[in-house]
Write a structure and sequence with these properties.
The protein contains ten helices and 13 strands. It is of the alpha/beta class. Strands 2-1-3-10-4 form a five-stranded mixed beta sheet, sandwiched between helices. A five-stranded mixed beta sheet has the order 7-6-8-5-9, sandwiched between helices. It binds ligand PBG. The site of the ligand NCc1[nH]cc(CCC(=O)O)c1CC(=O)O has 11 residues, from strand 8 and helix 6. Its cofactor is dipyrromethane. Its EC number is 2.5.1.61. It catalyses: 4 porphobilinogen + H2O = hydroxymethylbilane + 4 NH4(+).
């Protein structure tokens, strides 16, 4: 008997994350694995592999088809990497839970550290944040476009298309790829929501919200919602080089964030503390934008 239908993209990482959610649901509700049906949904983002995500229309490319399936009641919930979920979601969709966050750091593959990269090394990435952060640390580097799923990027590296690449430790770990060297967050602050898996439901589906809510890890939700509040207040999109990481100690949330110009020559950073994630995100966004030079401000539309 099928008790719940879980939608996911078809990439190996997406399937792995959906299996983690399925297992968590089964553990929480005493279901057997075959009582949760996994529905693979191909998104526009999966079909288009040769251009930077930012160029072709942004994060909705990963969510639109899953949103439609939720609305059409073809699935009860959708599993996403929260990093890929656009800041403003349709009113029909609600974020119902997040799994415990994995390693939030980026990992460098191809050299032991950013400092150890050879002079004028070529680094493959399509992330405006990673590009700007790398160029800020090492202006001699050349950054080339690298897209595709985790294994595609590792294959491009192995084929010599670049000397090194950066990938999220979370994705590598979930896929069991033990490669690369973690970059400390004080050297390279990760993307907002990096390492977090989220589950979305139809906003008016109380039953699905209850079922999924049982596996929510509140500390992850609190931190990721704080990082997303910053993005919302910044008017950031996936062209915007922005890094952010929240942490929770007791009731106190601390949000650190960094905005960069596209070439990394300009940077503003800051932090804010409080107990209300939405308020902290908005306050830090305001502070950063006030201090940001024009080359950074133009990349945001608050
Ligand atoms: N943009 C692709 C994407 N979305 C989520 C992850 C990794 C998993 C995570 O951050 O939870 C990745 C790959 C990467 O950045 O290396």
């Amino acid at each position: 008997m099928i008790r719940f239908r879980l939608g996911t993209r078809g990439s190996p990482l997406a399937r792995t994350q959906a299996a983690m959610v399925r297992d968590a649901l089964c553990a929480a509700h005493g279901w057997h694995a075959d009582e949760v049906e996994t529905v693979i949904i191909r998104t526009t983002g999966d079909r288009i592999q040769d251009r930077a995500l930012a160029e072709i229309g942004g994060k909705a490319l990963w969510t639109k088809e899953l949103d439609r399936a939720i609305e059409a009641r073809e699935i009860d919930a959708a599993v996403h990497s929260m990093k890929d979920v656009e800041t403003i979601r349709p009113a029909m969709i609600a974020i119902a839970a997040m799994l415990p966050r994995a390693d939030v750091r980026d990992r460098l593959i191809g050299a032991d550290s950013v400092a150890a990269l050879r002079q004028r090394a070529i680094v493959g990435t399509s992330s405006p944040r990673r590009r700007a952060q790398l160029l800020r640390l090492r202006p001699d580097l050349t950054v080339v476009l690298f897209r595709g799923n985790v294994d595609t990027r590792l294959a491009k590296l192995a084929a010599g298309e670049a000397d090194a690449t950066l990938l999220a430790a979370a994705g590598l770990d979930r896929l069991g790829r033990e490669v690369g060297h973690a970059i400390p967050t004080d050297l390279m602050l990760p993307a907002p929501a990096q390492g977090a898996v989220g589950i979305e439901v139809r906003a008016d589906d109380e039953s699905a919200a209850m079922i999924v809510g049982a596996i929510d890890y509140p500390a992850t939700s609190a931190c990721v919602l704080t990082e997303r509040a910053l993005l919302a207040a910044l008017g950031a999109d996936c062209h915007s080089p922005v890094a952010a990481l929240a942490s929770l100690a007791g009731e106190m949330l601390t949000l650190r964030a960094e905005l960069l110009s596209e070439d990394g020559t300009e940077q503003v950073e800051g932090h804010a503390e409080g107990t209300d994630g939405a308020e902290i995100g908005a306050r830090l966004a305001q502070d950063l934008l006030t201090r940001a030079p024009a080359a950074i401000r133009k990349l945001f539309c608050p």
